[in-house]
C-alpha cells in the first residue's frame, strides 16, 4: 500500500473481491477508488459522456453502462474505456481529467495485480488485473487493433491509418514492405524502415506445454517452455526497455492459481528459453487449465492457451437412473 501510495479505503474496497471478476467488473471497482475523488462530474459534460456510452451512429465504449451518466464513478469508467478504445474526446477538461485518471490508475492497477498475486483462489481476477494494468500502461485494450500506436512516432491518426489498411498486429506490420508502409502513412523514406526496425526488435515469444509421464489420480506434471524466438536479433538492439517482463500465470477450472511468476526478458536473453516443471492438482470441475503469458508493457505480444491435463483415471461420469415417472414429468413439461 505504501509502495504504490494507495489509499486505505481503496485497499478496503478490494478486500471484498470475490476472485472471479471480469475486466468490466474490475474497471467498475477501480472507478470507485478514493484516488479519483478530485474528478468531478460537470453538467455540461453529460451529453458528451452519454454519447460515448451509447450512440447508434458513433463508436461507443466496450462495456456500456445502464442508463444515463449521472455519477462521478460513471464518468471515470466512461473516460477509462474511451481512452483504451482510442475514441477521441473533443473536450479539453475531459482530456485533462483522463490524464489525471490514468496517472493514478497506473498505480492502482499495478498494486491490484500485486495484491491479487498473494492469494490462490482468484485466477480470473488475477489474470484480468494483469491485463488491465498493462492496458493502463499502453492506453489500449488488450485486444486492440491499434497495436502500432505503441511504436515511436506513431500517434492516433497514424495508427488509424494502419488499422484502415488492415495492419492490426505486429506480425502484419513486419511482413509489409517499408515503401508500402510509407504510402499508407503518407511519410517519406526511411520512415517505413524505422517502423519495421522497431517491430523487428520487439520480443517474440513462443509457449510450449508438454505433459510429463509422472501422473496419478489427483496430480499431473507439465513442462512449460517459453522461447524467445528472436533472441539472437535482440542481443544487439531492443525496442522494449531493459525492465520488460512477461508474467506466466496458470489457472484451473476451479479458479485456483496453479502458477504465477514474472520472467524478465534479461533472463530469456541469456539462453533464449525458460523451462519449468509444474505440478497440476486435479480440479473438481474439469481437467482444463488456462496458460497465459502476459507482457508487462505491450498489447499484441500476449499468448493465451487452453490445455487439458491427463490423469490416471478418467473423469467419473455419474450414471443417472431415469424412471418412467421422470420421463412422464419431462414430456408433460415439454408440452
TrEMBL record:
Molecular function terms, GO-annotated: 3'-5' DNA helicase activity; hydrolase activity
Keyword ATP-binding: yes
GO biological process, one term: meiotic cell cycle
Keywords: ATP-binding, Helicase, Hydrolase, Nucleotide-binding
Stored InterPro entries: Meiotic_Crossover_Helicase (IPR052247), Sec63-dom (IPR004179)
Every SEC63 domain range: 1-309
PANTHER family xrefs: HELICASE FOR MEIOSIS 1, HFM1, ATP DEPENDENT DNA HELICASE HOMOLOG
Official protein name in the record: HFM1 helicase
Source organism (scientific name): Podilymbus podiceps (Pied-billed grebe)
Organismal lineage: Eukaryota, Metazoa, Chordata, Craniata, Vertebrata
Amino acid at each position: 500500500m505504501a509502495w504504490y501510495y494507495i489509499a486505505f479505503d481503496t485497499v478496503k474496497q478490494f478486500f471484498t473481491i470475490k476472485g472471479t471478476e471480469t475486466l468490466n467488473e474490475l474497471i467498475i471497482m477501480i472507478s470507485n477508488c478514493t484516488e479519483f475523488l478530485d474528478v468531478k462530474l460537470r453538467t455540461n459534460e453529460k451529453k458528451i459522456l452519454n454519447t460515448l456510452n451509447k450512440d447508434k451512429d458513433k463508436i461507443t465504449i466496450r462495456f456500456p453502462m445502464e442508463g444515463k451518466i449521472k455519477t462521478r464513478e460513471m464518468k471515470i469508467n466512461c473516460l477509462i474505456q474511451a481512452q483504451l478504445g482510442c475514441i477521441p474526446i473533443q473536450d479539453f477538461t475531459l482530456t485533462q481529467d483522463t490524464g489525471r485518471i490514468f496517472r493514478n490508475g497506473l498505480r492502482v492497477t499495478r498494486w491490484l495485480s500485486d495484491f491479487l498475486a498473494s492469494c490462490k483462489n482468484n485466477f480470473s481476477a488475477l489474470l484480468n488485473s494483469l491485463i488491465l494494468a498493462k492496458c493502463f500502461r499502453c492506453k489500449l485494450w488488450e485486444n486492440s487493433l491499434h497495436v502500432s500506436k505503441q511504436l515511436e512516432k506513431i500517434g492516433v491518426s497514424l495508427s488509424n491509418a494502419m488499422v484502415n489498411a488492415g495492419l492490426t498486429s505486429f506480425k502484419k506490420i513486419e511482413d509489409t514492405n517499408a515503401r508500402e508502409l510509407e504510402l499508407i502513412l503518407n511519410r517519406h523514406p526511411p520512415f517505413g524502415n524505422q517502423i519495421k526496425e522497431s517491430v523487428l526488435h520487439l520480443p517474440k515469444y513462443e509457449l510450449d506445454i508438454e505433459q510429463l509421464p509422472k501422473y496419478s489420480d489427483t496430480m499431473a506434471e507439465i513442462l512449460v517452455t517459453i522461447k524467445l524466438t528472436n533472441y539472437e536479433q535482440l542481443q544487439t538492439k531492443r525496442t522494449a526497455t531493459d525492465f520488460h517482463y512477461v508474467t506466466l500465470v496458470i489457472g484451473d477450472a476451479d479458479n485456483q492459481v496453479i502458477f504465477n511468476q514474472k520472467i524478465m526478458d534479461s533472463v530469456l536473453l541469456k539462453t533464449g528459453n525458460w523451462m519449468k516443471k509444474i505440478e497440476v492438482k486435479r480440479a473438481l470441475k474439469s481437467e482444463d487449465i488456462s496458460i497465459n503469458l502476459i507482457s508487462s508493457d505491450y498489447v499484441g505480444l500476449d499468448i493465451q492457451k487452453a490445455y487439458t491435463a491427463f490423469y490416471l483415471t478418467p473423469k467419473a461420469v455419474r450414471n443417472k437412473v431415469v424412471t418412467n415417472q421422470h420421463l412422464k414429468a419431462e414430456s408433460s413439461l415439454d408440452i
